[in-house]
Design brief:
It is a single chain. By secondary structure, this protein is an all-alpha fold. The protein is built from 4 helices and no strands. The longest helix is centred in the N-terminal third of the chain and has 22 residues, at 12-33. The radius of gyration is 14 Å and the shape is elongated. 39% of the residues are buried.
Amino acid sequence: MGVVTNTMRNMQSCIDACAKCSQACYECFHACLNEPDLNARKNCVSSLVECAMMCQMSVSMMSMNSQYSKEHCEVCARICDSCAKECAMFQDEHCVKCAEVCRICADECRSMAKM
């Protein structure tokens, strides 16, 4: 159910997953900046920002019931999968948790895109 309308009912779980993923990616980004092997994490850090931004945009697109929500969610799923793969290369707790949140979001986005 949407915040002010009932029209987002079928998209709400994906909206919630994308919002959570964006937050997780930004938190992981901040944590990675403080890791001693930051140079080895360049691709991961870049992926985290891309994923967070894409998830934020997906929330916006679905919230306004955009005609391109499904296509956007398809791309978001691919970006979340990629980010999860990058995060999984590191064993810090924040990266492990972020990878899991990204995988869940990717699954939600794929489901949304098939509606």
